[in-house]
Amino acid sequence: MKALVLEDVSFSYNGRSILKEVSFDVEKGEFLVILGPNGAGKSTLLRCILGMLKCSGSIDIMGRNLKTLRRDELARLISYVPQRVEPNFLRVFDFVLLGRKPYMSLRPSNEDIKLVINVLETVGIEKLAERPTKMLSGGELQKVAIARALAQETPILVLDEPTNNLDPKSQIEIMRLLRELSLAGKTVIAVMHDVNLALRFGERFIFMKKGEILGDYRKNTIRKEVFEKTFDAKVELIETKHGPLCYFL
Ligand SMILES: Nc1ncnc2c1ncn2[C@@H]1O[C@H](COP(=O)(O)OP(=O)(O)OP(=O)(O)O)[C@@H](O)[C@H]1O
Q1: Quick one: 98 and 50 in the same domain?
Q2: Whose CA is nearest to atom 18 of ligand 1?
């Protein structure tokens, strides 16, 4: 069974076509990065996969058709880290605990509490546990959002620009974590703008432009032409021991 299957997914905003018959599938445990210029439709595609926008075509998630899934069922299959997370008065621990909502009755169980402690440690933010989310830096808040998604314990994790707001060391930590999660069997799908961070840690790359897929590559098959076509720029691709490095000229 595939983690995700999209067939002819199309979406329009007020008659303006944003996604045009997008089809691809994702294996379990894959680390897929979606690349493309501003306005290509990347976030819209994620929102369709998450059932937040009603598109035409079909989307299967872990073998179930999206249209047949109840909200709570979907929340146990797919978790989401949005581009921007609104901080609030909740302390980090309780904010992350919200990720357990699809499993909780009225109050959290000891298992829920243990899991949250674990997740905070995995993401390296256990020291922030008592801090209100309103009192965090952008990067800290991003890590908290990732922790909340991990607490949701879903087979698929979707992230919209997960390294935004993070300093270089935190960027590497998060990307390493995402890679480890995918190696452990979680399907990770991330929209990213930092091409080189994506190339270093991602495994498969889908290039999007004007609502269409221009290319779908594994790391070792990637060519500079697809970057040039996608981003309308001259590019030099350099092989390094960490994989290809892309210079925009
Ligand atoms: N609520 C909306 N109503 C109308 N048009 C929208 C809406 N949201 C997005 N769009 C348009 O849809 C197109 C695709 O937007 P989307 O956010 O999916 O692109 P993106 O590839 O994620 O871009 P970015 O890299 O800038 O985040 C854009 O032209 C955008 O202006």
Answers
A1: no
A2: 41
Ligand 1 pocket residue status of 18, Cβ below 6 Å: yes
pLDDT at 165 over 80: no
ipTM above 0.95, yes or no: yes
Same domain, 31 and 113: no
> Residue 9 belongs to what domain range?
4-77+155-248
pLDDT in tens, 29-86: 999 999 999 999 999 999 999 999 999 999 999 999 999 999 999 999 999 999 889 9
Cβ-proximal residues to 226 (8 Å cutoff; 6+ apart), any chain: 207, 214, 215, 217
Pocket flag, ligand 1, residue 40 (CB < 6 Å):
yes
Q: Using CA atoms, how far apart are residues 176 and 148, in angstroms rounded to an integer? A: 18
- Tokens 């909502």 belong to 101
pTM of full prediction above 0.80: yes
Q: Alpha carbon of 99 to those of 83, 95, 154: distances in Å?
A: 17, 8, 10
Does the beta carbon of 36 lie inside 6 Å of ligand 1?
A: yes
Q: Which atom of ligand 1 is nearest to the CA of 211?
A: 14
Domain final residue, candidates 105, 130, 153: 153
Count how many domains the chain has.
2
